[in-house]
Amino acid sequence: MLRLLQIEYIKLWNNRASKFLIISYFVLLSLIALISMIKINFGAINFSLAEQGFFNFPYIWHLNTYLAAWFKLFLAIVIVSMMSNEYSNKTLKQNLIDGLSKKEFILSKFYTVLSFSIASTIFIFLVSLILGLIYSDYTQPSIIFSNLDFLFAYFLKLVGFFSFCLFLGVLVKRSAFALGFLILWQIFEGIYFLIFFYKISPAFYEITSKFLPLNSMSNLIKEPWSRLSAIKTAANQIGANANFDYHTHWYEYVIVMAWITIFICGSYVILKKRDL
After folding, report:
1. What is the pTM for the complete model shown?
2. Whole-number percent of the chain with pLDDT over 70
3. Range of the domain at 108
């Protein structure tokens, strides 16, 4: 495993674009901390995100994993480019000539996906922990380390999304077309929502949409805003229901794990049958 990872990181670190995107990704993740500095002073209105409970434990685990997931496209570009470069630079063929099997080749890419996901999860854990210890009103260990399941959901969401990008990179060969296909698939799931939710049956959509790849990954971390006490108070005043189930159910984990298996095995099958 370490040998395969070393091969991939040598390739990535010698690619200036990949290096820039990886560094930019972690810089953007660290900028989440700057949210704590946002203060609005407008006449008699004094508003601070930190004072509104944004960084209270255990809510911060939910909020930061939700926000950080939006930046995953940076690493997605790296992963798609990583695969397309293997074809354009003919390093894939050279690796196979040098004795690397096709199975080991796909595993090296999957290990890279796992390492990116693990590093990102650890980074978000540390950033959230520091922000929480500084701003949270609750510092009891039992509260601090509750709701850590959001970190696992975040990790699995990244692995699923990056595995999808890897599959598209193997399938399409060109990074621009692979990213274009990713955007088209997102549009398809949006159209699926509009047709089935509004035109056919909301109940049918709720059942079937759980199995769509991007939607299933999105379901791992629901929106966190309605958990804020200010939002709940406002909702109760207008008679709206603000009590939602924010946690991930076991079957939602299983669905994403199934897609990860499909994407990685599919990548291997395509590579095995393709004439290089």
Report:
1. 0.90
2. 86
3. 2-25+48-273
β-bridge partners, 46: 41
Q: Count how many domains the chain has.
A: 1
Q: What is the pLDDT of residues 140-175, one digit of tens each?
A: 989 999 989 999 999 999 999 999 999 999 998 888
The answer to whether residue 258 sits within a structural domain is yes
Instruction: Kindly state whether residue 40 falls inside one of the protein's structural domains.
Output: no
Sign for the CA dihedral angle at 221, 222, 224, 227 comes to negative
Helices assigned H by DSSP within 145-274: 149-172, 175-195, 202-208, 213-218, 229-237, 250-273
**Predicted confidence band at 2 (pLDDT cuts at 50, 70, 90)?**
confident
Residue given tokens 């159209």 in the structure block: 191
Joined tokens for residue 7: 């091969």
Classify residue 38: in a domain, yes or no.
no
Between CA 181 and CA 3 the distance in angstroms is: 32
* Torsion angle, alpha carbons of 162, 163, 169, 170, to 10: 160
Q: Is residue 206 part of a domain?
A: yes
- Please tell me the distance from the alpha carbon of residue 159 to that of residue 110, in angstroms, as a whole number: 9
In the block, which residue shows the tokens 């510092």? 139
pLDDT digits (tens, 9 = 90+) for 33-68: 777 666 666 555 565 666 667 788 988 999 999 999
**In whole angstroms, how far apart are CA 249 and each of 62, 64, 204?**
15, 20, 19
What are the structure tokens assigned to 231, written together?
Answer: 């939002």
